[in-house]
Each structure stands twice: as structure tokens, then as C-alpha cells.
């Protein structure tokens, strides 16, 4: 009976050991990279914030980026590292954009009213111990000035 009571008292403590706040991952930049053929390559800069009292080690990352409610780019990296406790780091992940995705976005920009920014959705997985962790983020990407100008005024 004493063993049963001890187990009941220890269970809540064990459960709290594994609980962590989710990491926060945001897109903070997009830079062009050399591509091949009809493929466009971009470097997506992600800010990873760790709101926990212990560092988070990672081993690889995979992501999907939707822009304007349509699939846009995918990428992977085998990069390893650690996000310090209550700290942050910026990772640069190369992504591929198909010609079809670029064409779809260009047509969408021409058909829609002028925009200052495009909505995005980011989904992915940060590899690590015990299978890693999934993440998602939404926000807006600011368009370069050249793309903001109405047709006929450039």
C-alpha cells in the first residue's frame, strides 16, 4: 500500500519533467541563391527562440512554405546545433521553388489588387532527440518596392 501511495505522489512530478514550452520559429528573411534550369533557390532565415530553462539540441530541419494560400517552397538541411536556454538563434535553410509555383504567384500578383505584403504559412520539423518537434508559423512577407508599384508606373 505504501508503494502504491508513493507511486501516485511521484507520477505528477515525472509528468512535469517532460513538459516544455513550444519553440517559437519565425521567418525573418528571404535571400536569393543560385538556381538551376527553371528552379529558383532561396535562403529562408528562421529565428528560433527557446522559452525553456534547458537548451534544445537539434539535428536537421525540414520545412514547407506556403505563400498567399498556395504551396511555394520546400527545403531541408542537415545542420546541427543548439538553441540556448531562454535564448535564440538564426538558421539559414536553402529551399527550392518550382517554376510552376513562381508562375502561380506572379499571376496571382497581377490579378489581385496591389499588395504591400503576402500572407505566408510555415510548417516543418526540427530534428532531435525523441523524434524532434514540429513547428508552424504564420505572418506576412513584405514585397520589394519594385513589386509594389502598380502596372504602368514602373
Bulk shape: elongated
Mean pLDDT: 82
CATH architecture: Sandwich
Q: What about the largest sheet?
A: 7 strands, antiparallel
Question: How are the secondary structure elements laid out?
Answer:
Layout: H1 2-17, E1 24-33, E2 40-50, E3 56-67, E4 70-83, E5 87-97, H2 99-111, E6 117-126, E7 133-142, H3 145-148
Descriptive terms for the model:
single chain; 154 residues; alpha+beta; Immunoglobulin-like; disordered C terminus
What does this structure look like?
- InterPro entries: LEA_2, WHy-dom.
- This is Water stress and hypersensitive response domain-containing protein.
- One of its GO terms (biological process) is response to desiccation.
- The N and C termini lie far apart (82 Å).
- It is built from three helices and seven strands; from the N terminus they run αβββββαββα.
- With 154 residues, it is an alpha+beta fold.
- Strands 1-2-5-4-3-6-7 form a seven-stranded antiparallel sheet.
- A hairpin with a 6-residue loop joins β6 and β7.
- It has one domain: Immunoglobulins (Immunoglobulin-like), CATH 2.60.40.
- The protein is elongated.
Amino acid at each position: 500500500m505504501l508503494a502504491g501511495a508513493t507511486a501516485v505522489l511521484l507520477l505528477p512530478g515525472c509528468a512535469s519533467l517532460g513538459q516544455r514550452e513550444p519553440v517559437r520559429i519565425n521567418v525573418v528573411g528571404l535571400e536569393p541563391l543560385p538556381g538551376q534550369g527553371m528552379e529558383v533557390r532561396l535562403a529562408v532565415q528562421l529565428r528560433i527562440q527557446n522559452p525553456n530553462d534547458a537548451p534544445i539540441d537539434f539535428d536537421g530541419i525540414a520545412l514547407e512554405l506556403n505563400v498567399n494560400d498556395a504551396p511555394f517552397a520546400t527545403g531541408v538541411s542537415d545542420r546541427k546545433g543548439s538553441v540556448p536556454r531562454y535564448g535564440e538563434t538564426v538558421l539559414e535553410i536553402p529551399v527550392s521553388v518550382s517554376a510552376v509555383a513562381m508562375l502561380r504567384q506572379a499571376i496571382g500578383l497581377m490579378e489581385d489588387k496591389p499588395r504591400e505584403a503576402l500572407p505566408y504559412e510555415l510548417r516543418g520539423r526540427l530534428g532531435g532527440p525523441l523524434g524532434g518537434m514540429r513547428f508552424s508559423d504564420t505572418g506576412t512577407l513584405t514585397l520589394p518596392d519594385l513589386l509594389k508599384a502598380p502596372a504602368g508606373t514602373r
